Amino acid sequence: MTTTWTVKRLLDWTTAYLMENGIESPHLEAEILLAHALKMKRIALYTSFEKTPSPEELTLFKDMIQRRVKKEPIAYITGVQYFMSLEFKVNSSVLIPRPDTETLVEVGIDLAKKHDCRLAADVGTGSGAIAVSLAKYVSSLNVTGIDLCREAVRLAEENARQLGVSERCSFMHGNLFECLEQGIKFDLVVSNPPYIPTVEVDRLDSDIKMFEPKYALDGGTDGLDYFRKIIAASPSYLNPTGFLALEVGFDQAESVKKILDASGNFEGPRAVKDLNDIERVVYAKIKN
Q1: Both ends of the chain: CA-CA distance in Å?
Q2: Which of 139, 132, 26, 34 is nearest to 83 (CA)?
Q3: What confidence score (pLDDT) does residue 4 get?
Q4: Are residues 130 and 18 in the same domain?
Q5: CB atoms within 10 A of CB 181
Q6: What is the CATH number of the domain that holds 132?
Q7: DSSP secondary structure letter of residue 85
Q8: Are 163 and 209 members of one domain?
């Protein structure tokens, strides 16, 4: 007897299969993948239990399941990641935006509004999630995103267009600040740089170390290389009342504060905790 693969039967079978293969949220991911294959919202699955997907939809769904059990991140499979309540396109050229990074955006929004910031830079922009979110939620802000990867720059530009802020977002290919014109100054510089110590990169979960770009993860021997570089270079690109805000690893806040203090160019570095009560962002004002 031929099995009729309804939406409900597919969800039940896939949930069990993903669970057997060590996926932590099997039912949620089954829903996400099936909804993507059927080009519908997840909530619509619940009113479509008896729907029978087409052969083409079933083939696409099967392919996505096999990619997931090989530990490929679900965001790369669907090409979509939600961040700051916005939908971003992602691919394997960029780090997948995490909820932790929303703390950096929230700090940036707060600084921009309180201090009437008009120009901001996002160093290591990746998918553009930080830059685009800042522009989306601070209507007076113009943001420049910089990334070493040309594909990331292209993707960030696409996300800015899709989310309606391309007129206030520009993206550049380059290493840190090197691509910027001499004399340009920003009111706010933000960055979520690579900050995982080199020795720890190969110990990361399979879905991270096997699929996400190493250049966006590896922060050097102690994980602090890019903080040193950004803190050293950013004073040349900040206005006299400008701020620098950095996402840091779970145990790096004090070390980054010390680097800021030792530079002699910043005053009163502060740390902000994320929703897990971890000091996730360090920010400081440039010294006059």
Answers
A1: 79
A2: 132
A3: 83
A4: no
A5: 6
A6: 3.40.50.150
A7: T
A8: yes
Identify which of 104, 107, 109 has the alpha carbon closest to the alpha carbon of residue 134. Answer: 109
> Could you tell me if 190 and 122 are in contact, meaning their C-beta atoms sit under 8 angstroms apart?
yes
Q: What is the mean pLDDT of each run of 10 residues along the chain (288 residues)?
A: 82 95 93 94 89 93 95 95 96 95 98 97 97 97 97 97 97 93 94 95 88 92 96 96 96 97 95 95 94
- Residue 19 belongs to what domain range? 7-70
Greatest alpha-carbon pair distance for the chain in Å reads 79
Helix ranges (H only) for the chain are 7-20, 26-38, 55-69, 74-78, 102-114, 129-137, 150-162, 198-201, 206-209, 225-233, 253-263
Write down the pLDDT at residue 182. 83
Joined tokens for residue 239: 């206005």
The residue behind tokens 């100054």 is 185
Whether 56 is covered by a domain: the verdict is yes
Report the C-alpha gap between 34 and 37 in whole angstroms.
5
- 260 and 165 in a common domain: yes
Q: Which two tokens stand for residue 2?
A: 């031929």
Half-sphere exposure of residue 14, counting CA atoms within 13 Å on the CB side?
28
Note whether 162 and 61 are same-domain residues: no
pLDDT at 2: 65
86-89 and 80-83 strand pairing: antiparallel
What pLDDT is attached to residue 105?
98
Token pair in block for residue 9 = 């039967």
Same domain flag for 135 and 41: no
* Other CB atoms within 10 A of residue 78 CB: 16
| Closest listed residue to residue 141, CA positions, set 194, 211, 200, 190 | 190
3-state DSSP percent of the chain in helix, strand and coil, to 5: 45, 20, 35
pTM metric for this prediction: 0.92
Does the residue 84 lie in any domain? no
